[in-house]
Amino acid sequence: MKTRTALVAAAVVALSGCQALKLTPPASDFVGHLPDAHKEKLMALNDVPSQPFRGGVQTFQFDPQTSLLTVIYRLPNPRWYWNTHKSDAEQDVFPYICEQFGQPISQGLGVRFWYSGNGGFATDVVTDATCRQLSQSQAG
Q1: Residue 38: per-residue pLDDT
Q2: Range list of β-strands (E), the chain
Q3: What is the domain extent for residue 121?
Q4: What is the C-alpha separation between 5 and 12, in angstroms, rounded?
Q5: Does the structure show a pLDDT above 80 at 54?
Q6: CATH number, domain at 96?
Q7: Where is the signal peptide (predicted)?
Q8: Is residue 22 included in any domain, yes or no?
Q9: Pick from 100, 91, 55, 47: nearest CA to 73
Q10: Kind of pairing, strands 56-63 and 121-122?
């Protein structure tokens, strides 16, 4: 009986630890109005397991209430730090995001990146206006 109680207690602690690993992205003023069909597809990203990324991990959090997708890059160690700046990251990833998520973005999706950890930051939200502006600057 003691072993069973100890196992249950260990499972509760382990599960609550997993729950604590769920990061809460920084607040955003963005509110989009994405059609429900796109929301359903993007909700699946919340269940995608973490993927390795430059020594850290990448995860997704889609908020269907605001139609905001946050791509989270998290460092595995608090002593590590991001050796990049917000403006550099935005210049590198915004064109890629417009290419990959162009249709949902044009219909109301917002996408941002959050580099979580020491020296971290959240990028501005990529919107349809952002993608149109990037397209015009590449054409001209």
Answers
A1: 93
A2: 51-53, 56-63, 68-74, 110-116, 121-122
A3: 31-139
A4: 11
A5: no
A6: 3.30.300
A7: 1-20
A8: no
A9: 55
A10: unpaired
